[in-house]
Amino acid sequence: MQPYFVVSGAAVLFAVLLMIRIRLTRSSGSRTVSGIEIGNGQTIGSRSEQDDYFSSMTTPVGTLAVVADGISGLANGRMSSTLAVTTFTKAFAKLEDATNLNGYFAEAATQSNRGILQNLNGQGGGTTLAAVIVCGYQLYYGAVGDSLITIYRNGHFQTVNSKHTAETLLEERVLAGQMTSEEAKTSPVRNQLVNYLGYEGFESMELGRAPIRLYSGDHVLLCSDGIQEALTEIELEEIMRKGGTPQETADAMIDAINDKGFKSQDNATVLILAIG
């Protein structure tokens, strides 16, 4: 009987998370909150299910935006990304001030990792996650995995976070003279994640040492890796330079990906925050 209750409990939890997921993702379309206009775009690509999940919300503390890219495997990718984003948004809603936002990121990541591991119960799964909080003209961030946070300013992108993949380790080996640049580029483990939520060895997420100053006209983008794998930085810059609302821009990125029609196109999600 005990295994039955474990499976039933997991099924109920997943159903609740799915309902929350549906409610949150219905709020699509460009909207303006506290001087920040927000747009989002998403495609399932060629995958059989959508493992990306995202959300944004504004409270008196500031505006939170978060994107998670679930690691595929039965329903575990969807469960992991949904649980992580839900954990981050619920914790943010309880914040009363902005005195310790790095503490918020760290605690929400720890709670997410613990919750995902409990639900995986030894199975494969997990999720990357990129989150930002904008307070006035200050950007705080936390990230784990290979989802990207970048700032578009004056016609160019400025990358905020690092990729937590074997690529970084390989580049360090190249600099140390332990392997050639060509060997690093062609390594089969190049894109393998070395840190994510739902990982037994997870210790912490990447946090900004200090807030990043934003300016009016800046655009903050959060992208799952399906975006940067399909579109080059030059292509993304061309789309950004056309202007338009954040929603129009996000739609244009997704349209560009779909138009390429890659047979192995990953799930792709972008959140765009335009700073007023």
What does this structure look like?
There is one protein chain. This protein has 276 residues and is of the alpha+beta class. The protein has one domain: PPM-type phosphatase domain (Phosphatase 2c, domain 1, 4-Layer Sandwich). The strands form two sheets. It has a six-stranded antiparallel sheet with strand order 1-2-12-11-7-8. A hairpin with a 2-residue loop joins strand 5 and strand 6. Helix 1 packs across helix 2 and helix 2 packs antiparallel against helix 3. It is globular. The N terminus is likely disordered.
Describe how the helices and strands are arranged:
Blueprint: H1 2-25, E1 31-33, E2 36-43, E3 52-59, E4 62-70, H2 76-94, H3 101-120, E5 127-135, E6 138-144, E7 148-153, E8 156-159, H4 166-175, H5 181-185, E9 206-207, E10 212-213, E11 219-223, H6 225-230, H7 233-241, H8 246-260, E12 268-275
Antiparallel strand pairs: 1-2, 2-12, 3-4, 4-5, 5-6, 6-9, 6-10, 7-8, 7-11, 11-12
Helix pairs in contact: 1-2, 2-3
